[in-house]
Design goal:
Length: 75
């Protein structure tokens, strides 16, 4: 299977997921399963929490498979 990179955006926040880096530690969905739910498609629901909670949870990703892009940083 080839590595996939997906972007999930709401307002000024984008969660970037790189499948090839994911170690399946489950930290993302155990910590914030209203946003991260591997049983759903798409598995990231940006409407499940406010931006601050999403950013805080993404920072806990041990592999770096999840990262954050902020609109201000992309402009």
């Amino acid at each position: 299977m080839r590595d996939v990179t997906k972007h999930y955006t709401k307002d000024d926040v984008t969660v970037v997921w790189k499948s090839g880096l994911c170690q399946h530690s489950c930290i993302c969905w155990k910590g914030l399963n209203d946003v991260f739910d591997p049983k759903k498609n798409p598995w990231i629901n940006m409407d499940g929490a406010d931006a601050e909670r999403i950013i805080d949870q993404v920072k806990k990703c041990p592999s770096g498979a999840l990262s954050i892009e902020l609109k201000a940083a992309r402009d």
